[in-house]
Amino acid sequence: QLQLLESGGGRVQPGESLRLSCSVSGRSFTYTTMAWYRQAPGKQRELVGFLTNSGRTEYANSVKGRFTIAKDNAKDAVYLQMNSLKPEDTAVYYCSAPGFREGQGTQVTVSS
After folding, report:
1. Average pLDDT over residues 69-76
2. Angle at 79 between CA 50 and CA 23, to 5 degrees
3. 53 DSSP assignment
4. For the segment 7-49, what is each residue's pLDDT rounded down to a tens digit?
C-alpha cells in the first residue's frame, strides 16, 4: 500500500490560519474518499471532515465554517485549510483514505 504523508503543521496563535497537505510521496494518486482526522492528547480520535472523489465535503460541527478540504491539483495533494484557529484545535492531524497507509500525522498547536 502507498503511504500518505501529512505536512504543514506548526504553532500559531488563536485566530490565525494553517494549511495542511496530504500527498503520496509527490506522485499523483486517486482516492474514493479522503478524510482528515485529529487526535488531541488524552482524547479520542475525531473526524474533522472528508472529501469524496465527486467533490462532496462534510465537516464536523466543531470546524464547520472555519475549515475547508479540497484537492490541490497543482501539487497532487488534498489540503485542509484551517482558518480562525482556536486552542481546542490543537491536535495531531492525519489524513486517511481507503487503500492507503496512514502517515505519522502533523502537529498543530494553537496557543497564545
Report:
1. 85
2. 100
3. T
4. 999 999 999 999 999 998 767 778 889 999 999 999 999 999 9
Q: Which value, to the nearest 10 degrees, does the dihedral of the CA atoms of residues 67, 72, 78, 83 take?
A: -20
Cell numbers at 91, concatenated: 491536535
Q: Each residue of 53-62: b (16+ CB within 10 Å) or e?
A: eeeeeebeee
| Average pLDDT along the chain | 94
Q: Calculate the alpha carbon distances from 88 to 36, 43, 61, 85, 111 in Å.
A: 16, 11, 13, 8, 9
Strand 91-96 with 106-110, pairing: antiparallel
49 and 66 Cβ atoms separated by less than 8 Å? no
| CA distance linking residue 94 with residue 87, whole number of Å | 18
Give the 3-state secondary structure of residue 41: coil
pLDDT-derived band at 2 (thresholds 50, 70, 90) equals: confident
